[in-house]
């Protein structure tokens, strides 16, 4: 991979992630409650002012911040910046009530409605797709153990070079993105390949911050998943591979011990396999108004 190819994919991935977010339908849920906007915006502005006063921020530093924030927008990297450094806390708040499997952040590279392969098993990939073949299987149940027939599994991940289709040049649309359904016992089996670790583009605004601060730009190799079933909360997760050098210092703070896969040699003799069972939380019938004590 030459620096020029990295540059090309940095520009493409930022713009594509920004477009994707605009089309996601999530922008329509803006918080309209004035008291809440006041509370959150005031707290954020206060926190920033506290930092300026406490750290004695200079005009040069203030102007560096201003030009960097402008650059984040020009590079299309707001989705990347927010998902890498903030989404993990939002995810923690959103899922703290759950009893079923732990999840993790969605990140900037999800695309809804990925193809459903005819065999309900093989993720779309190039004929010569490189990487270790990976059989990913498991069972989806409710938290009480009841199998969830026909549960939906969406899987997307980087290729063996660390690139995501639709966000990097020269990859077929939907490469390594698929939608699958569990059988009548909630069981699923998916054939894919092992992804490589992901590096934040080095030439964009986020990469410049990482270099200027002396951090590293890596996420450990990961699978992205969404598990859904009628009457159950959507589980958005990432799963990780033991031994990855960045499992303990993920730049996006999205690794949890419960999300580590158990990778074994494949019974087929080719590649590796892993079994990951998933328990989904039933949608609560209690509205906040009926929670005792409220
Ligand atoms: C990724 O692949 C990712 O999963 C996250 C959360 C942020 C940046 C790139
Ligand atoms: Fe990712």
TrEMBL record:
MF annotations from Gene Ontology: catechol 1,2-dioxygenase activity; ferric iron binding
Cofactor(s) needed for function: Fe(3+)
Gene Ontology BP terms: catechol-containing compound metabolic process
Keyword presence, Iron: yes
Gene3D superfamilies: Aromatic compound dioxygenase, Catechol 1,2-dioxygenase multimerisation domain-like
Domain Intradiol ring-cleavage dioxygenases, chain residue ranges per copy: 136-164
Chain intervals for the UniProt region annotation (Disordered): 1-27
Keywords: Dioxygenase, Iron, Metal-binding, Oxidoreductase
Domain of life where this protein originates: Bacteria
InterPro entries assigned to the protein according to its UniProt record, in alphabetical order: 1_2-CTD_multi_dom, Catechol_dOase_N, Cchol_dOase_actb, Intradiol_dOase_C, Intradiol_dOase_core, Intradiol_RC_Dioxygenase
Protein family membership: Belongs to the intradiol ring-cleavage dioxygenase family.
Protein name: Catechol 1,2-dioxygenase
């Amino acid at each position: 991979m030459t620096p020029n190819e990295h540059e090309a994919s940095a520009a493409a991935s930022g713009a594509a992630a920004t477009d994707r977010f605009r089309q996601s339908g999530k922008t329509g849920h803006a918080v309209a409650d004035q008291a809440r906007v006041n509370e959150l915006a005031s707290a954020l502005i206060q926190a920033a002012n506290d930092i300026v006063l406490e750290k004695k921020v200079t005009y040069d530093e203030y102007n560096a911040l201003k030009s960097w924030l402008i650059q984040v927008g020009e590079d299309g990297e707001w989705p990347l910046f927010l998902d890498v450094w903030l989404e993990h806390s939002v995810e923690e708040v959103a899922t703290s009530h759950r009893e079923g499997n732990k999840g993790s952040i969605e990140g900037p590279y999800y695309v809804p409605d990925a193809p459903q392969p005819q065999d309900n098993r093989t993720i779309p990939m190039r004929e010569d797709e490189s990487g270790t073949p990976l059989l990913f299987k498991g069972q989806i149940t409710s938290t009480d153990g009841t199998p969830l027939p026909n549960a939906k599994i969406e899987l997307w991940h980087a290729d063996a070079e660390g690139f995501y289709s639709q966000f990097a040049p020269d990859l077929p649309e939907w490469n390594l993105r698929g939608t699958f359904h569990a059988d009548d016992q909630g069981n699923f089996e998916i054939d894919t390949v092992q992804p490589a670790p992901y590096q934040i583009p080095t030439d964009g605004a986020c990469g410049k911050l990482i270099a200027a601060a002396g951090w590293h730009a890596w996420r450990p190799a990961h699978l992205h998943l969404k598990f859904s079933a009628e009457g159950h909360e959507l589980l958005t997760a990432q799963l990780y591979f033991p031994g990855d050098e960045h499992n303990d210092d993920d730049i996006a703070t999205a690794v949890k011990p419960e999300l580590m896969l158990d990778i074994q040699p494949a019974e087929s003799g080719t590649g590796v396999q892993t079994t990951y069972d998933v328990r989904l939380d039933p949608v609560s019938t209690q509205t906040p108004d009926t929670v005792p004590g409220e």
